[in-house]
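Thread amino acids onto this structure.
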């Protein structure tokens, strides 16, 4: 796709879907857009945007594709084990005596897709600190994904493959398609939110933002990490995806806290 067409396509996407591709790496995004157009069997982007204006299902499909909302429960089990064994106990211990507006730990799943990550976090809390109060904000810019997240499903057997038999019994409906039960749902507030444009809440003990920034430009990532740092309380922790590393984390006030974890300096 040449530069002129990309400029036009970006403008149309911004107008119709309110997604600003300016903050996404251009080469990857162009490749993704080219292969999408080829798959939809429309000849030109003009034809495709005409189709979008009359076909709302296609519009949602395009939104899903652009935002790439692949996810699963307990994605990357080793990292979640570290969260459970090291990070949550640290946060629970350090939040004792700290006054929180909402009472208990404040957690945020940023870029939660269809909710698997937020529900995984709620399971960890139920298992690590069953009587501890907490609140969990889960946000994404993808409305369709959030709708599924709020409904607690439906999830496929592949979505839940990393959960053990006990966890499935305890938290999910007995047979596929799986739904998550009310005891996890009641802790979570799902909201539409654009990490690149919207205001952040603050006072978080833990922010989980995994596999979201892969297509963001270096500048967009810098802004985001600075905003995450401001949104954490001192001693709060940022949990990133398996391959995501913050270079020069000290400039945001972060210390390494094990692979994939950064702690805001006290
Ligand atoms: C690959 S999924 C990752 C889901 C989950 N965090 C995980 O690791 O399994 C990426 C999610 O980031 C969301 N996303 C992309 N850009 C975003 C933005 N600017 N603001 C909020 N969410 C965004 C997408 O809608 C998608 O649901």
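Threaded sequence (266 positions):
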């Amino acid at each position: 796709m040449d530069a002129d067409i990309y400029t036009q396509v970006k403008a149309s996407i911004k107008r119709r879907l309110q997604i600003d591709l300016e903050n996404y790496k251009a080469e990857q995004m162009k490749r993704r857009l080219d292969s999408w157009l080829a798959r939809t069997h429309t000849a030109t982007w003009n034809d495709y945007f005409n189709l979008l204006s009359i076909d709302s299902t296609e519009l949602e499909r395009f939104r899903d594709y652009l935002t790439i909302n692949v996810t699963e429960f307990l994605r990357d089990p080793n990292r979640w084990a570290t969260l459970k064994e090291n990070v949550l106990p640290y946060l629970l211990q350090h939040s004792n005596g700290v006054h929180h507006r909402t009472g208990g730990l404040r957690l945020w799943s940023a870029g939660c897709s269809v909710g698997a990550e937020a529900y995984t976090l709620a399971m960890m809390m139920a298992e690590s600190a069953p009587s501890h109060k907490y609140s969990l904000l889960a946000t994404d810019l993808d409305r369709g994904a959030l709708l599924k997240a709020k409904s607690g499903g439906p999830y496929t057997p592949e979505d839940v493959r990393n959960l053990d038999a006990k966890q499935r019994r305890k938290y999910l409906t007995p047979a596929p398609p799986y739904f998550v039960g009310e005891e996890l749902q009641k802790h979570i507030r799902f909201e539409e939110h654009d990490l690149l444009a919207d205001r952040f809440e603050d006072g978080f003990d833990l922010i989980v933002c995994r596999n979201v920034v892969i297509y963001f430009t270096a500048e967009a990532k810098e802004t985001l990490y600075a905003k995450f740092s401001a949104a954490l309380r001192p001693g709060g922790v940022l949990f990133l995806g398996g391959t995501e590393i913050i270079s020069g984390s000290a400039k945001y006030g972060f210390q390494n806290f094990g692979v994939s974890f950064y702690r805001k300096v006290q």
